[in-house]
């Protein structure tokens, strides 16, 4: 999943967005350039690192390919080993890209969000950066062959390709869930009394589920890959806005963590007396 162009565009919101306190008077969220810019920069840095690791993954050797056995796969995933559909792969990009457009469109159309579009986009960038960092680092560090690798009717070069060795976890599903659940969460926070909330949440749940199904059918990911991707994306879509709420009482903070021999995410819980 190439997120380079996406991040290049949306990072502009850090400088064009409404981050001043005057714009926050009627907003449920609190953001600041001093706090949010380093957070986004840190997570985007982790994305770049993760993409670099993915780029340098190794192909399967023929010996490794021949040693693969469906019976070694986790039982809930075993039935989808060998799946492949080029059409399902292409179709999955329709709701995938549409989910990215939903946040700015909703921010523009909803009157309660419209004057805070910049602020909402900053939160959206953070949400996608967190999700992207979790995905790229995991996909880069974990070797798991996609279901299509078990399809013996496919050319060997496609089955051993390094891109086919990053099934865990489902990045498209995670990104779509993050974007969709973000839209629903922000809509609810700006419109707490709206009767449309159940329908917005239903759509938020359905869109990434559709992407997950298509990725499963395409042979890109196993069921467990999609379930984890869905959970991580949905969690980021809800958690990032919640952590920025003015009345947030979770005492939880999420930051990128990097050291000499490690890279990852840091979740902190602060106890208050």
UniProtKB/TrEMBL annotation:
Keywords: Membrane, Signal, Transmembrane, Transmembrane helix
Membrane-spanning parts: 92-109, 121-142, 168-187, 199-216
Organism this protein belongs to: Pedobacter puniceum
UniProt xrefs under InterPro entries: PAP2/HPO, PAP2/HPO_sf
Protein's name according to its UniProt entry: Phosphatase PAP2 family protein
UniProt-listed Gene3D superfamilies: Phosphatidic acid phosphatase type 2/haloperoxidase (1.20.144.10)
SUPFAM superfamilies: Acid phosphatase/Vanadium-dependent haloperoxidase
Top-level taxonomic group: Bacteria
Ranges where the Phosphatidic acid phosphatase type 2/haloperoxidase domain occurs: 119-241
Signal peptide: 1-22
Pfam families: PAP2
């Amino acid at each position: 999943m190439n997120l380079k162009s996406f991040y290049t565009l949306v990072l502009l919101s850090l400088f064009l967005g409404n981050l001043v306190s005057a714009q926050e008077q009627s907003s449920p969220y609190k953001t600041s350039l001093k706090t949010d810019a380093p957070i986004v920069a840190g997570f985007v840095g982790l994305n770049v690192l993760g993409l670099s690791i993915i780029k340098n993954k190794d192909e399967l050797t023929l010996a490794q390919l021949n040693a693969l056995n469906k019976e070694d796969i986790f039982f809930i995933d075993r039935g989808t080993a060998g799946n492949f559909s080029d059409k399902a792969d292409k179709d999955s990009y329709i709701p995938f890209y549409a989910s990215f457009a939903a946040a700015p469109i909703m921010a523009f159309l909803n009157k309660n969000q419209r004057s805070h579009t910049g602020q909402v986009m900053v939160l959206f960038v953070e949400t996608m950066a967190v999700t992207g960092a979790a995905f790229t680092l995991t996909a880069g560090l974990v070797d798991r062959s996609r279901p299509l690798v078990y399809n013996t009717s496919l050319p060997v070069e496609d089955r051993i390709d390094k891109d086919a060795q990053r099934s865990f976890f489902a990045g498209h599903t995670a990104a779509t869930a993050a974007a969709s659940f973000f839209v629903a969460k922000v809509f609810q926070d700006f419109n707490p009394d709206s009767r449309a909330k159940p329908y917005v949440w239903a759509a938020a749940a359905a869109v990434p589920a559709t992407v997950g199904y298509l990725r499963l059918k395409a042979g890109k990911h196993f069921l467990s890959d999609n379930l984890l991707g869905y959970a991580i994306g949905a969690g980021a879509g809800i958690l990032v806005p919640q952590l920025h709420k003015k009345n947030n009482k979770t005492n939880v903070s999420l930051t990128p963590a990097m050291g000499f021999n490690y890279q990852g995410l840091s979740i902190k819980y602060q106890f208050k007396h």
